[in-house]
Design goal:
Blueprint lengths: L1 H14 L2 H8 L3 H4 L6 H28 L6 H15 L1 H11 L4 H18 L3 H16 L4 H4 L4 H14 L15 H15 L2 H13 L6 H8 L3 H5 L5 H25 L4 H15 L5 H9 L2 H4 L13 H8 L9 H18 L12 H23 L1
Helix pairs in contact: 1-2, 1-6, 1-17, 4-5, 4-7, 5-8, 5-10, 8-10, 10-21, 11-15, 12-13, 15-16, 16-19, 19-20
Length: 386
């Protein structure tokens, strides 16, 4: 399994296969088939292996936490959890990848682990979730590692504790009302219909659903789109270019909608909530789609995508919010975008799964927790109970 994780770490899902693993191990592919039936069987075995390591690690954390005084537990948990991520970086990367494909039983096991940690730390699930989210941001997310190297581990640990308890926002940040912005959803729905009506995008979707990405070819796309292969070659030279251009078309329309919707809002807080609502609306209802994408998309394609966060003007409102003393100046606009994206991932993938009960909540409520922190949330909860 360690060898499989080595192969996976090189290019994640795209090139992980029985063939690459057999070459890495110096054995024949038929010999490897004695252990694994196919690629999915290999990934399932890797997932089981990493899950066993994670379970043992969390069990050790709980024992250590129960051996110290209660007032030290939250700070020590942040430190130990962070250092565990740092030491087991590739396990954390595979685990985040596997979260999208794991079954209900695995998720329930993780929820049980979270319950055990919550009791050991002596805190709420809100606090626990925020700690793990910020720790992954600082020590586990590959796109942030080069930025986070400028901070020492001690600085990051202290910052996590402050952000969890007091939030990302300043005293000037006023959470918008919980009223649903139906205009945002209406425009999102219109854009989705426009995208779905694009013949090539419809063809790609249909072929992927029927054949999977491993069996996709330009011939099959052309047939599904009702055009000749030569006509399709007028638009795309190969599969990578087809996917890149198709996705960039969607990104361009998304950015235009984003600009239009935010221009209608007056305050930074309203713009931020609209930004989150838009991002949440476009997040796949079945996040396993990300796994399918990784099977097909290599790093060469990813590097050619016009990712919204790097387009001029997309995060201007976030910079303005920092300058207006709405958000703490400890992060750049791109860092804030990553943090809020993690939150959307938690909200759409984990808490809306129906397995975590009271963790599901409206976007403004989550925004209040992120910007004001758990101390303010607990204070309001205590006031309501009185």
């Amino acid at each position: 399994m360690e060898a499989a994780l080595d192969v996976w770490s090189d290019d994640e899902f795209c090139n992980t296969s029985l063939a690459t693993l057999s070459k890495h191990l110096g054995m024949t592919k038929p010999a490897l088939y004695r252990y694994f039936k196919n690629k999915e069987d290999l990934l399932d075995s890797m997932a089981g292996y990493v899950q066993e390591l994670e379970t043992a690690w969390i069990g050790t954390l709980i024992e250590k936490l129960n051996s110290i005084s209660e007032e030290r537990r939250l700070h020590c948990f942040i430190e130990w959890f962070a250092m565990g991520l740092k030491k087991g970086y590739r396990y954390a990367q595979f685990d985040s990848f596997n979260t999208l494909r794991c079954n209900t039983m695995t998720r329930k096991q993780r929820f049980a682990q979270a319950e055990g940690l919550k009791e050991a730390v002596g805190t709420s699930l809100d606090t626990l979730n925020l700690v793990m989210m910020y720790c992954f941001f600082f020590w586990g997310w590959h796109e942030m590692l080069h930025i986070q190297q400028e901070r020492s581990d001690r600085e990051k640990i202290d910052l996590v504790l402050d952000l969890v308890q007091h939030g990302l926002g300043t005293g000037n940040f006023m959470v918008p009302s919980a009223q649903k912005d139906h205009e945002v959803q209406a425009q999102v729905d219109r854009l989705k219909r426009t995208i779905q009506e694009e013949p090539v995008i419809m063809a790609v979707t249909g072929v992927v659903q029927e054949k999977g990405f491993s069996g996709i070819t330009l011939e099959k796309i052309a047939e599904s789109a009702g055009m000749s292969k030569s006509t399709l070659y007028n638009y795309f030279e190969n599969k990578d270019q087809m996917l890149t251009k198709s996705l960039n078309t969607i990104v361009k329309q998304y950015i235009e909608l984003h600009r239009a919707l935010l221009s209608e809002k007056d305050s930074f807080e309203e713009k931020l909530l609209t930004h989150l609502e838009l991002q949440s609306s476009f997040f796949p209802k079945k996040p396993q789609a990300f796994i399918v994408m990784k099977q097909f998309v290599g790093k060469g394609v990813i590097s050619k995508l016009d990712r919204p966060v790097y387009q001029p003007g997309f995060l201007t409102f976030m910079d303005e919010g920092i300058k207006a003393d709405k958000l703490k100046p400890c992060f750049s606009a791109i860092e804030y975008q990553v943090i809020f994206s993690f939150f959307i991932f938690l909200e759409r993938v984990i808490f809306e799964s129906g397995e975590y009960g009271s963790q599901a909540r409206e976007l403004p409520d989550w925004l209040e927790l992120l910007t004001h922190g758990t101390q303010e949330s607990e204070r309001k909860e205590t006031s309501r109970s009185k």
